[in-house]
Amino acid sequence: MKKLISIGFLTCAMAAAWRLAVIAQQASTNGPKYTSSGELLRPGDYREWVYLTSGLGMTYGPALPPAARRPPNFDNVFVNRESHRQFMATGKWPDKTIFALEIRRAEQHVSIDNGGQTQGGLVRLEVAVKDQGRFPDTTWGYFDFGAMPDLAAATAALPKTAACYSCHRDNTAVEWTFVQFYPTLFEVAKRLGTVKSTYDPSHKP
Amino acid sequence: MKKLISIGFLTCAMAAAWRLAVIAQQASTNGPKYTSSGELLRPGDYREWVYLTSGLGMTYGPALPPAARRPPNFDNVFVNRESHRQFMATGKWPDKTIFALEIRRAEQHVSIDNGGQTQGGLVRLEVAVKDQGRFPDTTWGYFDFGAMPDLAAATAALPKTAACYSCHRDNTAVEWTFVQFYPTLFEVAKRLGTVKSTYDPSHKP
After folding, report:
1. Does the CB of B78 have a partner CB in chain A at under 8 Å?
2. What is the CATH number of domain A39-60+70-192?
3. Is B180 an interface residue toward A (CB < 8 Å)?
4. What was the ipTM of the complex prediction?
5. Which of A138, B35, B119, B165 has the fewest CB atoms found within 10 Å of its own CB?
6. Can you name the residues that pair with A36 across neighbouring β-strands?
């Protein structure tokens, strides 16, 4: 009988350990990680997060005359999986949501393509984090990991005077996020009533 | 004592049930699902798979003169998570790999954008599946779920005479997949030596 109980509890202990391992694995790819001095570690796995949208040549200031324009880049936006799941259910971002914005070269005439643009090498990486404890006044913090081939392994949040803070505060459809550019999420936010009452789709800064 | 054993086994049963639920959840989002008559069910969760790339206005035939061109669309490519994990380790696709290609409208002047193009509504959805049992001669099968707002819930594989088969056979860098357009995967395939010896980056059909 003692043996039976031991086997029972051993099996339970193994099941519990397995469950903890699963949870730990999820945690390791979910949410921001900081160094002891408060720098954000560059997320190594953001390409496995949920993809939200791409833009090509997005221009947030005045449009430049054609002669002054640089070749346009693609931008790809990703968000951590757990926060995406919560947004799809609530239209809101939980604390510790983390976004990655990667900029990639746009390439033409690659392989069999005869007229379009496709994505090439990584150019730079930027990250936004919702962290009410660390950013009590703005809720969100913005991080620039710089340009290839010298992406930082960790970086401090940009100062509150950086343009990202006021731009995200003033021009976004949901909280401080550009949900108006993420078609699958914008539908959810409109249905759940979480689009800001101040959001004006025709507003240009 | 009997009570202790019962609690022990009940806990184990719950842990086992939980584990099975986790496995079932993973299975439900991984790999192709068919109807009893062999039609592929439209994957409902492909936006949570791993994103591979986007193109804008990709043109696989001869480039048209500007006056004859339609407004370009974005295309986004996704692959199931488990197959992506295996490709990153081996440079090869396991059987039951499933790709989704979604076409989205390209929109201009949305919100604060003054010069780029961003993604709008879904236009159409196509899927490719590696299934050696179902497609012994081609290995891959191609499925067209049609255009919005009338996407099919399930559809049969396109006939072998459809252009996708010969195009994927003749112009792809790895197996029957356009890995040359997926920058994070192309690096892996080159490193692991799985790019086809017949792949010619300058070949135009």
Report:
1. yes
2. 3.50.70.20
3. yes
4. 0.85
5. B35
6. none
